[in-house]
Amino acid sequence: MAAELYIVDGDNVCHLRGPGEDYARARELLVAEIAGYMAQTGIDGVVVLDGHGQNRSIGRTRVTYSGRETADTIIERLAHRSADGREVTVVSSDSVLRHVAQRSGVHAMSAREFSDRLAAAPRARLQPQKGGSRRLLGDALDPAVREALERMRRGG
User: Fold this and answer.
1) How far, in Å, are 61, 67, 92, 121 from residue 18 at the CA level?
2) Which of 2, 8, 34, 120 has the most CB atoms around it within 10 Å of its CB?
3) Which domains does the chain have, with CATH numbers?
4) Are 30 and 8 in contact (CB under 8 A)?
């Protein structure tokens, strides 16, 4: 059986957190946090964002932009297509979308609950190495996630 899949309405989760002045930066930080969570839990993820942007993958997480469609339309289609042979969970603030997902046999979770799970997830604990060598946070990341974050940092 394929790994569990979460399909996340990224803008719903981002809005819950109060994006501050730089919404694009808040989105990127959220994507990085979700990618780390998915790598840590072994769950595959798709983060759907409204509007146009560069679709990409970060480890177990795929980032998809809705383009001219709504994120809800993309999420509903992905959930329907992905439900065969794997457990799928739709994450959205839209109660109608969650209801439609549940009626088609897909699990549903509110953006609030997912945000709370992200916040409660244990972070990688960095133990000091013997010999005084310094360890960086990046050393605790999944290599694919670390590489994708580095590309994002460089604007690629």
Assistant:
1) 23, 23, 16, 20
2) 8
3) 5-125+132-153 (3.40.50)
4) no
Structural contact between residues 145 and 138, judged by C-beta atoms closer than 8 angstroms: no
Q: What is the CA radius of gyration of the chain?
A: 16
CA distances from 25 to 20, 31, 84, 107 (A): 9, 10, 35, 29
Strands 88-91 and 107-109: parallel
Looking at residue 143, its amino acid is P
Q: Any idea how long the chain is?
A: 156
Q: What is the pLDDT of residues 75-122, one digit of tens each?
A: 999 998 888 889 999 999 999 999 998 988 899 999 999 999 999 987
Structure confidence by residue, pLDDT tens digits, 28-46: 999 999 999 999 999 999 9
Question: Which distant-in-sequence residues (6+ apart) come within 8 Å of 92 by Cβ?
Answer: 8, 9, 12, 72, 75, 98, 108, 110, 111
